Amino acid sequence: MSRSPQPARAAWTTPSLLLALTLVPVAAGAARLVWLATGEVRPDSARFAAAPAVLVLHILCACAFCVLGAFQFTPGGSRRWPGWHRAAGRLLAPLGLLAAILGLWATVLYPPGVNDGQLLYGLRLVFGSAMAASLLLGLDAIRRRDFASHVDWMTRGYAIGLGAGTQVVVFLPWALLVGPTDQLSRALLMGAGWVINLAIAEGLIRRRRVRPAWRVAGL
Question: So where are the chain's domains?
């Protein structure tokens, strides 16, 4: 009996998990776009009404970045489908940069939410800047044909961009066991989502360093 279907299914495990992680924030972003388009006034969307374009573009870029980026983590995908990997990468980098820059702009432009204190404001600026810097360093690495560093930096940038998905996972047990958040707990839980993703990214990067066969070559 052929064993080929098992490796094929295993290759899609990571993208499938990443797509599942994006499901809730993508759905939330789509709902927010509907509210803005219909003019529905909600407590969590009224502050965006005066200048919705920045938020709309941020949501569209971030959702596309997270969904399309998930497929870049198919094991061996860059070797089996180099054309797809390059084409998707040319879209992902500008999408990710726009999402990060627009997220920073939105943080400064819009009034804070009910539970958005100064700590969360600072965390958004730090992680948004870190995401943009990671993607720029990834682009610089591929320009220098440093494929290993390219993968490392793009992995970090994607991990930060996917923070909204992990934040949903972090918030759920808190909501069930503790209840609503205040300014401090909300900031700490949001920060935990970004930190968890970066910790996982660093673990993957270290794993690649000790297993050179995982390195991407010939992007």
Answer: 5-214
